[in-house]
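User: Here's a structure from my thesis project, written as structure tokens. My advisor, Dr. K., wants to see whether a designed sequence matches the one we expressed. Can you design one independently, without my sequence as a hint?
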């Protein structure tokens, strides 16, 4: 086979970089403008918006002070809009992928296709799906990129011929490594990859003993070892974390008290995370997204995957035409794939060890999938090494194309999920602003989004609520709690609770609870009024259980309407049915029956209709109180409610024990319940 010309190899490198950019863009950019704020984003945005960038330094001072300075600087640049944060997240992740590509090409310069495959699979790795959550996880993405470039600079320093170049790149490697540790201490596990790479690039001299080679490797690793020792001394002795999850002394106590149990747990979790990261990351998320997906969405995702496969296939075809062949013979092939397998496998174990030591491990059903990323570098090396070793040369490109298709499909559905998640959060707070002009100080909000969009932490509610109702207050005027069986009991008993969340004090008096619910994806936001039995028949059981403890009087109905910060919540949605429902509910609470009836007439005239029949109730009350009991609109609403027997029976069952106005109660008893 003819050797490739240097000019062809340069072209191939450029085409490879372009390919990495295009395929990563297909994975992460199509819906990026639809992403917003999620999970831990809210406490950061609330702190920055209400108290300025300096507050971000304070809230991270308890465990990772360098992260606070980093977020403070980024907030000054990107501000409150989610789009710049997400674009930055994509750029940083792309930079990490390109850094890995550079490092691999230095280690295995002849393995053109394989090194590209490793970098590409890492860049669009489908086991990490928090890319749209790019505000909170900006520090993780920066951390990964710094660690990758740190190891790449180590490789460059080893390969450099001039002494000053070796010193320069060693210094850069040490600096980037230190910055990586300061952002996230668990990234120290990637030192295993650095050591393995140094070992591989330190070839054995003829008749050299193993101990002599170990000595040469250790000498090359000394600068990084000194950085690690200095960092660990600072982390363990000088700086004391006040957060249990990052308290090193507390972790060590676990192992002192139960060494056998803890070491067994570490071994088991290491094995599980190894399998999950290297192999299951390509299967489990793909299955979870596609098993119940709608046909239209599956076709669109398949089309995107086909486009990516076509682009990658063209690249492989071009490299074949140009004789850019990375493995001309089995002997040379074995010189690359076996090291890739053992370096990849061992580096995975090293990268996962600090995470598992701190009692964390990877899951594909929560934000803990972020713990796959440090090991994913080695996982992709291992996977491509195994494919290269056991799959024929002709089949190799097809296997990579299939994996890329799986990744693109997974990311497409993940992007839909996060776009929908933001849609419901955004709608909740716009509808809340229509329904509740102001909330009294001390209100405890408990909210429930439609199924599949969980509220995992309390700040996912008090963060946006504070931005809506008390945007100028540096203290929390409204608190919240996650809705579950345990907190539901506290609401019923009327207990209080408090906690400090990264220097933010959260105090709750469950006597002041107000429930918010989206019964399903077709409903509007329901602000639960304990005095009325008009709960949707789609309400979750927990909402139904504690509905009698929801205090609608926490809403100040006479306050001026709220103006949401559009930099965060976007432009106000169009005034369709949910707008009229919220305004009619507010009018009913104020007993402004003329307004409630007028809003109902206007909505009907515009042909707006609810898909949840319980949302007709404030309009029906307005009709009854304005002496329109025999109007066609009123009779039509009664007929509609009759079509929902579960809702009708629920109203009638609870009507006698409710605080409904006697006029409405008598009307419903006579015309609906009989």
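Assistant: Designed independently from the structure alone:
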């Amino acid at each position: 086979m003819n050797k490739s010309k240097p000019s062809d190899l340069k072209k191939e490198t450029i085409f490879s970089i372009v390919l990495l950019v295009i395929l990563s863009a297909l994975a992460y950019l199509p819906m990026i403008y639809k992403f917003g704020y999620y999970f831990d984003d809210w406490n950061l945005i609330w702190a920055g918006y209400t108290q300025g960038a300096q507050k971000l330094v304070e809230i991270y001072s308890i465990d990772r002070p360098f992260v606070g300075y980093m977020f403070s600087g980024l907030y000054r640049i990107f501000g409150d809009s989610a789009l710049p944060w997400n674009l930055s997240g994509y750029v940083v992740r792309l930079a990490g992928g390109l850094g890995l590509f550079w490092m691999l090409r230095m280690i295995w310069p002849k393995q053109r296709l394989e090194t590209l495959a490793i970098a590409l699979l890492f860049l669009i790795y489908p086991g990490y799906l928090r890319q749209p959550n790019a505000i909170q996880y900006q520090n993780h993405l920066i951390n990964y990129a710094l660690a990758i470039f740190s190891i790449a600079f180590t490789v460059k320093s080893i390969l450099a011929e001039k002494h000053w170049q070796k010193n320069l790149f060693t210094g850069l490697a040490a600096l980037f490594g230190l910055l990586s540790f300061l952002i996230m201490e668990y990234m120290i596990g990637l030192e295993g990859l650095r050591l393995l790479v140094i070992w591989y690039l330190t070839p054995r001299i003829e008749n050299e003993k193993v101990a002599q080679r170990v000595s040469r490797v250790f000498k090359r690793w000394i600068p990084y070892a000194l950085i690690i020792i200095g960092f660990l001394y600072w982390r363990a002795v000088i700086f004391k974390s006040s957060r249990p999850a990052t308290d090193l002394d507390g972790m060590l106590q676990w192992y002192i008290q139960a060494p056998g149990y803890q070491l067994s747990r570490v071994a088991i979790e290491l094995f599980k995370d190894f399998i999950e990261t290297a192999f299951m990351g390509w299967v489990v998320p793909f299955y979870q997204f596609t098993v119940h997906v709608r046909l239209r969405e599956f076709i669109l995702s398949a089309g995107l995957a086909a486009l990516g496969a076509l682009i990658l296939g063209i690249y492989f075809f071009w490299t074949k035409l140009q004789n850019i062949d990375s493995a001309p013979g089995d002997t040379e092939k074995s010189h690359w794939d076996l090291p890739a397998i053992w370096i990849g496998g061992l580096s995975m174990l090293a990268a996962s060890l600090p995470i598992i030591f701190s009692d964390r491990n990877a899951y594909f059903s929560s934000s803990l999938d972020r713990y796959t990323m440090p090991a994913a570098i080695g996982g992709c090396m291992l996977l491509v090494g195994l494919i290269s070793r056991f799959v024929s040369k002709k089949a190799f490109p097809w296997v990579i194309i299939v994996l890329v298709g799986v990744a693109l499909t997974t990311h497409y559905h993940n992007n839909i999920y996060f776009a929908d998640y933001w849609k419901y959060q955004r709608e909740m707070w716009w509808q809340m602003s229509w329904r509740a002009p102001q909330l009294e100080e001390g209100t405890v909000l408990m909210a429930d989004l439609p199924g599949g969009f969980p509220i995992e932490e309390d700040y996912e509610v008090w963060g946006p609520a504070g931005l809506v109702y008390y945007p100028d207050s540096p203290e929390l005027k409204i608190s919240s709690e996650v809705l579950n069986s345990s907190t539901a009991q506290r609401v019923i008993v009327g207990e209080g609770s408090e906690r400090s969340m990264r220097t933010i004090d959260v105090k709750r008096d469950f006597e002041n609870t107000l429930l918010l619910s989206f019964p399903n994806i077709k409903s509007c936001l329901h602000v639960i009024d304990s005095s009325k039995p008009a709960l949707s028949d789609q309400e979750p059981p927990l909402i139904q259980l504690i509905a009698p403890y929801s205090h609608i009087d926490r809403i100040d109905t006479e306050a001026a309407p709220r103006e949401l910060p559009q930099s965060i919540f976007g432009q106000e949605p169009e005034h369709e049915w949910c707008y009229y429902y919220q305004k009619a509910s507010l009018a009913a609470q104020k007993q402004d029956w003329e307004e409630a009836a007028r809003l109902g007439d206007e909505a009907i005239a515009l042909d707006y209709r609810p898909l949840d029949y319980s949302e007709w109730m404030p309009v029906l009350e307005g009709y009854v109180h304005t002496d329109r009991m025999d109007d066609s609109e009123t009779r039509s609403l009664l007929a509609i409610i009759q079509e929902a027997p579960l809702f009708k029976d629920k109203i009638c069952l609870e009507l006698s024990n409710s605080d409904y106005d006697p006029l409405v109660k008598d009307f419903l008893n006579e015309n609906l319940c009989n």
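When you compare it with your expressed construct, this may help: The chain has a mean pLDDT of 90.
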